[in-house]
Amino acid sequence: MTNICLPQRINLAIMAFFGFTCEYMMRNLLSIAITQIVQKQYYSSSQILGGDVCPADNDISDDSNSDFEGRGSYDWSEAVQGVILSSFYWGYIITHIPGGMLVEKLGGKITFLAGIAATSILTFLTPASITYGGSTLLIINRVIMGLSQGFIYAAVFGLLAAWIPLRERTTLGVFVLSGMQLGSILSTYLSGVLLKHIDSWAWAFYIYSIIGLIWCVAFMFFCSKDPESNKFISEDEKNYLRKEIGILERDTNLPPTPFKAIITSLPVWAVIISQTGMDFSFYVMTTDLPKYFSDVMKLDVEKNGLYSSIPQVLNFFTAMGFGLISDYCINKKILSVRNTRRFFTTTGTFGLAFCFIMASYSGCDRLQAMIFFSLASGFAGLDNSRINSMDLSPNYTPTITAIVNTCGSIMGILAPMAVGLLTPNSTILEWRVVFWVAFGILISTGIFYFICADGKVQSWNDSTTRHSYTNGVENGHVNKSDESNQELKDNFIKNF
């Protein structure tokens, strides 16, 4: 069959983008829905007048000195809510490494598809879990959902490593990853609108699950695990990708995963440490920021959705913009791969840390807090360390990604639980401690990444493989001596 509209690697990137969007819509929906599921806490006038608790927003209550009544009927403490919001990651961290190994053998398509399908079903069952089993069954549901999503990240990076050449890697890789931001935007803003205007919070879960299942059908039909097995790809694009990336028969050519070399690699640990810091802030932003605007800033659910989504919108555009700039710096040799990754990642990490602290000192000024949270999320869009794993080892990207995401996902457990324990009364001073903790984590991990990061393919990536990803331009620069390869690329681009 002939090519459909766009190059198939672009089609794959678009489908992966929307796959991440669906995943994060369903994953993060509970973070804002829980503000409508649980009962609200009452504060006395003396607490509010003391400045430690903000007065209710005018749209919520005519009495600015009393807390508003929510629609929730479940009396879950802040600590219990922290356990519920973190329970997803109990399962999430378990399947990362086994999932990465599975992706290396089977490819990313089937694992990606299975993860989104299972998530869609579990999202549909979430209201029933709460109704019939309360917090206990909800926690079980979230743990299973985490197990289902644990191998999605490795699956996506496996697909990108099989489809995307180096010269396009940052742009398309960041584009795909920005689906997480779009999913977070929709799971906050759209959820706020739905929860405000529909009769039952359960309908938000049903709507999102149906969207996820629709994506599964489209992905199953249009996408494949690699260019060789794609039925829509043109011969021009297939030959171009063979030259740029190479051919790898995973089931026969790929040697056993060099776990010892990976675990003892300092550049791999630079990625792990960097993502640990970024993930802590990410989970605070996506999981707990809606609670901050609801419990501390006293916004109603629709405004909460708007205020919580604006930071993700800025992150979406900065990630895309700086992804293009990163590729430009590499392709024009303005900076090496290593220095490009270091500059953008460290700048983003430090900027994020500073804006967190500024937001924590905004008091009850809702607009100022939202601006600093938005700037913080914008700085997070500069992060290049997620892409760095493909630089280090294209052949074993799924396993490295699985290890990185496993370590980072520990923050998904610790962040909500820490917030629940540190903010039992949801006061401004209690939340300020949370942001100072995030500041310390971000600064220390950013320094480590700057010192230890690398941008070259590591020696253990390809010692015995007959056909590898490294026979094209995977060594960190464009091979200009290969004139036929360059001519093929130029002719191919002209056609699109």
Structure description:
72% of the residues lie in helices and 0% in strands. It has 19 helices and no strands. The chain has helices at residues 8-37, 45-49, 78-92, 96-106, 108-149, 152-163, 166-197, 202-222, 235-244, 250-253, 259-263, 266-296, 301-331, 337-360, 366-380, 385-392, 397-422, 428-452, 483-494. Helix 1 (8-37) packs parallel to helix 7, helix 3 packs antiparallel against helix 5 and helix 3 (78-92) runs antiparallel to helix 17 (397-422). The two termini are 18 Å apart.
SSE series:
HHHHHHHHHHHHHHHHHHH
Taking Cα atoms only, what radius of gyration do you get, to the nearest Å?
Answer: 23 Å
Strand content: under 5%
Mean pLDDT reading = 80
Distance between the termini: 18 Å
Helix content: over 70%
Specify the number of helices. Answer: 19
Q: In terms of structural class, how would the helical and strand content be classed? A: mainly alpha
